[in-house]
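thread: overnight batch results

M.L. [08:02]
morning all. the overnight job finished for the chain we discussed friday. pasting input first so we're all looking at the same thing
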Amino acid sequence: MSLCANQVQMLTSPLKYFRTQKILSFLFLLFLVSCQDAQPVNRRDMLPGYIGKAGEVMVIMDDIYWNGTAGDVVREALSKPIPSMPQFERMFDYQHFNHANFDKFIHPHRNILFVDIRDNINYKTPKVQVIQEQYARDQIVINCSAMTADDFILEFKKVSNVVKDRINEAEYKRLINYFEVFGNKEASAQIRLERQIELLFPDLSKIMENHDEFVWAHKVTARPKDQQMHDVQQGIVIYEYPYTDDSTFTKSFLLNKRDSVFKKWMPGPDFGSYMTTERVHDDPLMIETSIEGKYAVEMRGLWKMENAFMGGPFVSLTTFDERRGKIVTIEGFVFAPKFDKREYLREVEACVKSFHYSNPEQTSK
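M.L. [08:03]
and the structure it wrote out:
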């Protein structure tokens, strides 16, 4: 006996129905699971990386103000000379763009100074604000607003030093992030184990000397200029000595100690030559600061090679390690006679500023 078409359809339709329901149920469950596993999107992860050269600032400011007194104030602030350098080098390079030209190609630049001067009731009180990562990761935007050029000038002059410090801090942070990934991790681990301090070292650097009271890591790279290759030398130095009294943190004591340590451990290329501090043509600067809430002294100046024709800038940080009862000085120096030294010095200074005390548990591991 054969089945008619209507009877076949009646038998097969329930099978199709139940299969369809099972598929829909599975897809619905899969959707619920995927929704539960989905993590909220981090805005930072959606941002592009920053662009631009180190030490460069994009100034976004309309021509009518850039070509006037307001522009003079900005240029003067960004072009301040870096202290204690062998020759004049300004703190930052800059490029200027009108608001109309501030497009997606400029948005991710590493350092942006945005100046908006216009008759707007919201600008009645002039403001200078720091915005982190507005258009790109690790970016800093200095946003300035005022109703008139005179209002902007008065406000910017008050905070220009703070603006420069914040841009510098952003540059140091980027370098520290770089050295955390690409620096000499073996040297950092060795110093952590031996001296219970955290310090980053430049990539391609090598520890040349390591004694109880003195460590010297050195990096040499070749750079082209005038159709020839020339060496650029960067050094990171650590030296320690017992704390005696508060006179330790006077300028004369610290410089004399520096000279005695470097005379012993940093000989020059010629017989009887050694590294010392230049005091005749440059008086080193000393600034009081802090590290993890503890008193510290920052010093910057020029070094020279006694009995040899060499020299360059240095920057150091000195503090008291209470755990070990020692004064610790971290110094970075540069020798690059054929090149501008700003960015080379900034690199070693970032390493110096990476210094902090180790966690005892981390050190033991």
